[in-house]
Amino acid sequence: MFNEGSLKDKHIDSAGAIAFVSVVDEETKDCGIGTAFHVGDGIFVTAKHVVQGKSILEVATTKRIIKKYENDNHKVETKDYINPQRLKIIDGPRYSTDESVDVAVFKVDTEGLLLPRLTFDSHTKHDIDDRSFLLDDVLTIGYPPIPFTIVPIQVASVGQVNAVIDVWHSKHPHFVVSSMARGGYSGGPTICANGKVIGIVTESLVQNSNQTESGFMSILCAEAVILEIKKHYDFDNEKYGVYWEFEQIVEIKLRNPAKDVGELNPYISDVEIHVCDIDPDACGRIECDDPKLLMDAVKLIEDICSIEKLDGDYNETVFEFYSYSYGDTLQSAAYAVKNLFIENGYIEISEKDNFCIEEHQI
Question: Structure pTM?
Answer without folding.
Answer: 0.87
